[in-house]
Write a structure and sequence with these properties.
CATH architecture of the largest domain: 3-Layer(aba) Sandwich
Distance between the termini: 26 Å
Number of helices: 11
CATH class of the largest domain: Alpha Beta
Helix content: 40-55%
Radius of gyration: 20 Å
Bound molecules: pyridoxal-5'-phosphate
Largest sheet: 7 strands, mixed
Number of strands: 12
Number of domains: 2
Shape: globular
CATH superfamily of the largest domain: Type I PLP-dependent aspartate aminotransferase-like (Major domain)
Strand order of the largest sheet: 1-9-8-7-4-2-3
Oligomer: single chain
């Protein structure tokens, strides 16, 4: 039973190696950037896309274009949403959720009450459970609220419900480690609104990506649907096999287990399920997962080759034993 922390795929690494050798050739560098933007437009179905140097940079560019209050889920979002809104001096309101998942009636009431300019969400609440992104988008669109979807965990969704330009005014994502597109760094922003990017020339230049990342992105985008599908399947399997999990019925890329003693339970899991090159056990309460004591198996952190059935069965067996020990 060997588990490996996610690395950029072989094809992405090869493209990045070649791009490193070509550094300094302006024409080739410009081509890498242009090709990456074209691939992102195909991927998101948005008309405009830019590669940037991190996911937080993409969020900053989106927020810099938003003048009024920002609405954020009360849990299951990304801590960067709050930090960047604070940095830009934007007023923040919080949307009550069901453990991170947005209820449309509650959203509608909160839009009327708090009159936000924008709503920032992640495609999966806390990487755990899919948000009803299409329905959220339709409501936001009707009410004049800009929906920004952080699709770091959902790029390449085979169902095209998530990370899809038809269901978000703006998509942002990180391509850092260990995301679905995993290049070690980088990110992107896409939209159909040409003004948004035209108004952001200076900040886009300041937060521009390395051409090596652009070259890797073109290759990694091709592999994203397979990576996401296999990660979703693995989580689906584990949610059925492990005794007590949250969000059993939802698609997600981690598996969350409620626990009265998350820290010692996590220590035990880390001992019994070691991961070469990184880790895959995290603990809650935490804003960017769930605000209750729990342990998360961050399956998204693992190389696809680690997600073999025998390995998944072993994870379930070890986890069930540890759950019993901590009851
Ligand atoms: C959902 C989400 N969005 C954005 C980010 C920030 O990405 P970056 O580290 O590329 O700035 C992260 C980082 O973990 C994340 O999990």
């Amino acid at each position: 039973m060997d588990f490996f922390f996610k690395k950029p795929t072989k094809n992405a690494r090869e493209a990045m190696c070649q791009a490193s050798l070509d550094l300094g050739n302006r024409e080739i560098e410009t081509n890498h950037n242009r090709n990456a933007e074209e691939s992102l437009k195909d991927l998101t179905c948005h008309e405009h896309a830019r590669v940037v140097n991190s996911g937080n940079s993409a969020i900053m560019i989106a927020m810099n274009n938003i003048k009024g209050p920002v609405l954020l889920p009360d849990q299951g979002g990304w801590t960067g949403f709050k930090k960047i809104a604070d940095f830009l001096g934007l007023k923040i309101s919080y949307l009550p959720t069901n453990h991170g998942i947005i209820n449309l009636e509650v959203l509608d009431d909160n839009i009327k009450l708090k009159t936000p300019h924008s709503l920032f969400i992640t495609s999966f609440a806390g990487y755990m459970a899919e948000q009803p992104v299409k329905e959220i988008f339709e409501l936001c669109d009707e009410r004049g609220v800009i929906l920004v979807e952080d699709a770091s965990g959902s790029i390449g969704d085979p169902q095209r419900s998530l990370a899809c330009g038809d269901h978000a005014h703006i998509i942002v994502a990180s391509t850092g480690s260990p995301k679905i597109i995993n290049l070690g760094s980088g990110g992107f922003i896409s939209t159909n609104d040409p003004n948004m990017l035209d108004n952001s020339n200076f900040i886009l230049k300041t937060l521009r990506p390395n051409p090596v990342i652009c070259a890797g992105l073109v290759e990694a985008i091709k592999e994203a649907p397979d990576t996401l599908s296999k990660t979703l399947q693995a989580c689906n399997f584990l949610k059925k096999e492990i005794k007590t999990v949250l969000f059993e019925e939802y698609r997600g890329i981690n598996v969350t287990i409620p626990s009265k003693n998350p820290k010692p339970m996590a220590r035990e899991l880390r001992k019994k399920i070691p991961v070469n090159g990184g880790g895959m056990i995290s603990t809650c309460p935490r804003y960017d997962r769930i605000k209750q004591p729990a342990v998360c198996l961050e399956i998204k952190n693992l190389e696809i080759k680690s997600l073999k059935n025998e390995n998944l069965r072993k994870i379930a067996e070890i986890t069930n034993k540890i759950i019993s020990d901590f009851m």
